Amino acid sequence: MFYTMLSITGIVLVIGLSYVSNVRARITDVILFGDSYTDQSRQHSIANGTYPGKDYQEVFPPNDTAADGGVQWPWYLGLYGNYTIWNYAVGGAVCSNNLTPLYEELDVSTGQQAWFIQDHIDAYKTSHQKLLLDPSSFVVVQFIGTNDVGIGSFLTTDEAANVSLPDVADCQLNSLKSMHALGARNFILNSLIPLQLTGLYSNSSAPTIYYPEVHDGNAWNKGMYNLVHSLNRMLSDGIDVLNAEWAGDGRIEWFNTYDLFKTMYNNPTQYFNGSIPANVTGHCHQCPDPDDYTQCGIGDCTLAERDSYMWWDELHPSEQTGRNLAAEIFKKIEGNS
After folding, report:
1. pLDDT tens, position by position, for the chain (337 residues)?
2. How many CA atoms lie within 13 A of 162 on its CB side?
3. Of 5, 95, 284, 300, which sees the most CB atoms within 10 A?
4. Nearest to 152 by CA among 103, 90, 198
5. What is the Cα–Cα distance from 204 to 196, expressed in whole angstroms?
């Protein structure tokens, strides 16, 4: 899907990448791969039978809401940077269904990249193959991993046989290499967030709508902390290897989403400004009975209160958190982060 945001009246936005010389105002397009932390409506379109094909138009509130309860952060990124956004993320996705086949949604390494090829590669796999975008005009942002390490996978020891965490790290890095082979040259790889701060992976053992059974919350909390830190370290180290391998013919920047979320968590009044005091431990969207989805929404916070919350539900960040993320990603693209 793509959309273009108009310039904000009275504001001059200067865009560029710090790691490419003399490129101010060149970045016009942002390509995004990921899961429900990024997806606006692709997963819902797949579920309702309107398969998102070439030039897919995302669906926004009030017709559809993202996993943050409203509009996902890429829309705000497009607004802040006057970018055309191509959001290929799918809720429930993993890096590769061959490694961590959780929901069988279109994964980053094959399904989502196939959409990019459909939109931006002419004569694919022929002698006349051509990238339809100027490599200097776009940046690829990859933000995946939450489902790879969570329930139904590594945290609950449900990963496929002979699959290890380094395999997941290699998948993410190889996905970037595949995009490089297609002609992309500017990349941002987002780290995993501190998932141990979410309601789902907190030290509470109470059932949630995402896992409606009593469980060992303390073990989950510690296990998730370890998984997130381990995968983030592998990815960060892997970026250095790829950048050295490419020797200037392309560049991956590391975006420390983990630290940003910890900063928001530890300084809530600087980031959350709804009609009630900032809240980084609770969540807006309520599901009173973890065994009954039909009751979800009973007891939700009000519209005026939403921007006070860091979390929309037990797993997903709020729309306000997404705005904060978009602002920082924009700074990264601009070279000021």
Report:
1. 544 444 333 333 333 344 443 444 489 999 999 999 999 999 999 999 888 989 899 999 999 999 999 999 999 999 999 999 999 999 999 999 999 988 889 999 999 999 999 999 999 999 999 999 999 999 999 999 999 999 999 999 998 889 999 999 999 999 999 999 999 999 999 999 999 999 999 999 999 999 999 999 999 999 999 999 999 999 999 999 999 999 999 999 999 999 999 999 999 999 999 999 999 999 999 999 999 999 999 999 999 999 999 999 999 999 999 999 999 999 999 988 7
2. 1
3. 95
4. 103
5. 11
Cis peptide before 61 (omega within 30 of 0): no
DSSP secondary structure string, 157-213? T-SPTT--HHHHHHHHHHHHHHHHHTT--EEEEEPPP-GGGSSTTSS--S-BTTB-S
Tokens coding 184: 């992309």
Extract the tokens encoding 238: 């892997």
Helix (H, G, I), strand (E, B) or coil at 225: helix
Distance, first Cα to last Cα, the chain: 27
Q: Which residues are CB-contacts of 237 (< 8 A; sequence separation ≥ 6)?
A: none
Residue 195 near residue 201 (C-beta atoms within 8 A): yes
Domain annotation for the chain: domains and CATH numbers: 2-334 (3.40.50.1110)
d(CA 175, CA 184): 11
Tokens of 10: 């009275």
Q: Please, how many CA atoms are within 13 Å of residue 37, restricted to the half-sphere of its CB?
A: 24
What is the Rg, in whole angstroms, of the alpha carbon atoms belonging to the chain? 19
DSSP 102-138: SS-PPPIIIIIHHHHHHHHEESTTSTT-EESS-GGGE
CB atoms within 10 A of CB 270: 11
pTM for the whole structure:
0.91
